[in-house]
Structure formats: structure tokens, C-alpha cells
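Bench notes, afternoon.
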Amino acid sequence: MSDETQAKTAETPAAAAETTTTRPDRPERPERPAGERRGPRPGGQGGPGGSRGKFFRRKKVCKFCTEKIDAIPYRDVRLLSGFVAERGKIIPRRLTGVCTTHQRRLTRAIKQARNIALLPFATRF
């Protein structure tokens, strides 16, 4: 039994070497010295050295705090549908900019509206 497993492991690196040969459908990449780094990607902004002043992203402000809306009505379908994606998922607060307390109230209102069939749980394909 141990001879069989040793024979299989001996064959595996050889088989792997055969599969990693050069592929004719892909062009060869130019060789780079080991310590050389790539330059920044075109159009990219992320990463540690990112955003070099291409555009300024405004800080998101809670819509309900600025308009001083305390209670979020579950019957206001137009308001709630702005916080629900096409597929029926609730959009997270990092995308909408709603504060934590209002996001919780908004989630509760959306779920209430779904239960009484004002909003769909999911869209049909």
C-alpha cells in the first residue's frame, strides 16, 4: 500500500511539469528583473498610493438625518424602493450613506412593506 502511494506521488510532479509547458495560444511575457515592481495601472485609484487627485468623492450624508425624518413609514413605497436593488435586496448603508440607526429602521420598514405585499421579496426573471 505504501509503495503504491509513493509511486503515485512520484508520478504527480512529472505530470504537473508536463501540463505547465508553454502554450502556443498565449504570447510570451517579457522577463522582468526579480526586484523590479510594476508601475501603477492606468485609470486605477485604489491601493496604498491610490487617488492622486483624479476626482473627489463626497462624504455620504444620511438622507433621513438631513431631512430630520424620525419615523420611516413602511407605506411610502417610493421612498423605500430607492433603498432596494432590482433583485429585491436591501442596499447596504456603505452604498446609500444612511446612518446606522436609520438603516435599521429602514430595514424594518422594508420588511414590513414586503410582508403586506407593497414591495416584492424578489423580482421574477
